[in-house]
Write a structure and sequence with these properties.
The structure is a single chain. Helix 9 crosses helix 11. A 5-stranded mixed sheet has the order 1-3-2-4-5. It is elongated, with a radius of gyration of 31 Å. The chain has 19 helices and 20 strands. It has helices at residues 2-21, 57-62, 68-74, 85-91, 105-123, 139-144, 170-180, 191-198, 215-226, 238-245, 273-283, 296-301, 314-329, 345-354, 383-394, 423-427, 446-459, 511-521, 541-550; strands at residues 77-80, 94-100, 129-134, 152-157, 160-163, 185-187, 204-208, 231-235, 253-257, 264-266, 288-290, 306-312, 335-341, 363-368, 374-376, 416-418, 433-439, 466-472, 489-493, 503-505. With 555 residues, it is of the alpha/beta class. It binds 2-acetamido-2-deoxy-beta-D-glucopyranose (NAG) (2 copies). One 2-acetamido-2-deoxy-beta-D-glucopyranose (NAG) binds at residues 93, 157-158. The site of one 2-acetamido-2-deoxy-beta-D-glucopyranose (NAG) has 3 residues, from loops.
Amino acid sequence: MAQRWFGFLLLLLVVLSVSIHCCHSIQEDHSHTLVNEDQVPSEDDDDLEDLEEGMDLDAQIASDSFSSAEALAATKVANVNDKDVERVIEKFEFVLLLGYAPWCTQSEELLPEFTAAALRLSQLGNPVLLAKLDAVNNPSAAAQYEIQGFPTLVFFVNGTREQYLGGYSREEIVRWVRKKTGHAVTTITSKEEAESFLSKNVTAVLGYFETLEGPEHDAFIAAAKAEAETEFVQMTVAEVAQIFAESSILPPLIAVRKQEPEHFTTFRGSFSIEEIASFVEINKHPLLTVLNSKNANMVYGSPMKLHVLLFAEKMDYENVRSLYLEAAKDFKGKVMFLVIDMEDQEFSRPMLAVYGLDTNKPVVAGLNNEDGARYFLESDFTVDNLKTFAANMYAGRLPVYYKSEPVPAENEGLVKIVVGKNFEEIVMDDTKDVFLYVHAPWCATCEKVGRVFEKLAKHVQDVPSLVMAKCDGQENEHPLLLEVPNYPSLLLYPAGRKSSSPIEAESKATWKKLLIFLKENVAIPFPVSNDDEVFSNAASRRETAELDTLINDEL
Ligand SMILES: *[C@@H]1O[C@H](CO)[C@@H](O)[C@H](O)[C@H]1NC(C)=O
Ligand SMILES: *[C@@H]1O[C@H](CO)[C@@H](O)[C@H](O)[C@H]1NC(C)=O
């Protein structure tokens, strides 16, 4: 079972990384909206002068597609290519490289953010160089730096590659880069600075100390450096701390401040880096997070492994948001409450498919991101039901969800239809030998094998101890069906031995060979009808082999 769960997690990761990186838009010329002017880093360096070739700064600033602020920002981004990228990366202590595709919508959305971040970082005197690479037209550089999807951000420290773990808005890029370049904490000294900081509405970890030294302060700084995306601020002035806490507080104190109802959470642990880090990890997420391709890494990387997911279209979400928020409050730091916008189909459809769902109606599901177990809210969307759902999930009391087609109303055919929900009843029936044919809609050989299976079923229809059954393995799940090696699979679950693994038959066999297989492997022997006489003594391998030469293969 573990193997299949692992497969599921991989699938989820693939789904996520595909949605993060894949650009499905058709090739169009959006170059007029891109920052496509060649630019140089704001660094006097002769080696890099050839970067300036072809640059037309005047034209760029004059162009009416740029406001002057944008034009200024654009000058802070170096345009690199196959020839010079390596040299640029080697040259600078810190480089944030953006690999983009000119026709990619997501690249197009990121570029202005990237450009604005470059300007801001430059204003702050940050030593980083932000560089962009048209990965489509510079394939060897793209290959060298493993830029496979667009957009991709890669960070380099003294030429050594590091994973970019920040967000994709200008603020998030700036915050992440500042942390990586040694500005882990901002010191706030006046009421004005405090108010201006708070007006940005960002989540912040605040440290209020008597002095900016000592072991407690050291631990705070170390935690700030280790954390990738949250703003850390420190202060020693009581009036400043009071503005953040909205009440008077005493040092030393660490807290997370967010722009939401329960916005101030005080740290109660001992001042070790581990405890501070874990406190921040658990408390930095908002009560509700709209999960999308941009923050998926952060959400799936969180130590909070239990997720409640609301799939909804915008209108529906507006209607239920307050209920959802109400339920989320009780599970702060325990269960992450996520919202997935069903209108973002590229992202939501694969996630829904994991639950076997294809719907526009709001649904609530659960995920344990540690073991891949899925859950499903069957009851109505009420605050109480949501709370019970999350509480049971937290307590490990929720039945794991398996996807299933509806149980067929009529199931009296020669080959019974098995779905997730009746698997237990039909296949696990200890009094019967069950021969199960597992197929998938996309499997090319399944149809043929299905016909052979039907033929065999006709042949054994009078055997009361034997059930012939089939199951669409794509649409139906059951813990005991998890290890279907491939499609089609023919699996025998012998009577009285349901707890051990099924016996697999060769799926390319003729119906006669399958009959021999059944006779050799069923727990309850069945008598031989006239037609079968030829097989009655076929127990030994030698005779079976002889038979093979006599039987006219149908396949
Ligand atoms: C990069 O290399 C320089 C020169 O060797 C060194 O002084 C600096 O500390 C290095 N930067 C980082 C972040 O390791
Ligand atoms: C911050 O939040 C307040 C109140 O919720 C809002 O009026 C303001 O526009 C927000 N500011 C920013 C920069 O988002």
